[in-house]
Design brief:
four-stranded antiparallel beta sheet, 2 helices, globular, 22% helix, 116 residues, alpha+beta
Length: 116
């Protein structure tokens, strides 16, 4: 079962060199164990574009879609047996000590079905 780890932090967060090294070690371990499918940090939220179509009107605005204090900064797609295992994996991510890691199940049955 696939889960997306959505990593968020506030604007004041600055990763240390040690934390970055921990993250790379964690990623290597998760890849070796066959858990991590893919993942990357994201460019700053200020570089985002948010697009909407409402009543036939197209709208694209600069910035993220929410005004939350915490912004999404990275994502990791993992493959686990169940939510319990996914939460354990998320808790082991170095960013869990420095930021917020949301664990979100992926609707796999829609992938490639033409229904999603």
């Amino acid at each position: 079962m696939k889960f997306l780890l959505i990593i968020s932090h506030d604007e004041h967060f600055r990763p240390t060199e040690g934390l970055v090294e921990e993250i790379f070690r964690w990623m290597d371990e998760m890849m070796e164990r066959g858990i991590m499918v893919h993942g990357n940090p994201l460019r700053p939220a200020e570089e985002a574009k948010t697009v909407r179509v409402r009543n036939g009107k197209l709208r694209a605005v600069n910035g993220p879609s929410t005004r939350a204090k915490e912004k999404i900064s990275a994502y990791v797609l993992i493959d686990c047996r169940d939510m319990d295992e996914a939460v354990k994996i998320a808790l082991s991510h170095p960013m869990a000590k420095a930021a917020v890691v949301e664990v979100r199940p992926v609707w796999e049955e829609l992938a490639g079905s033409g229904k999603g």
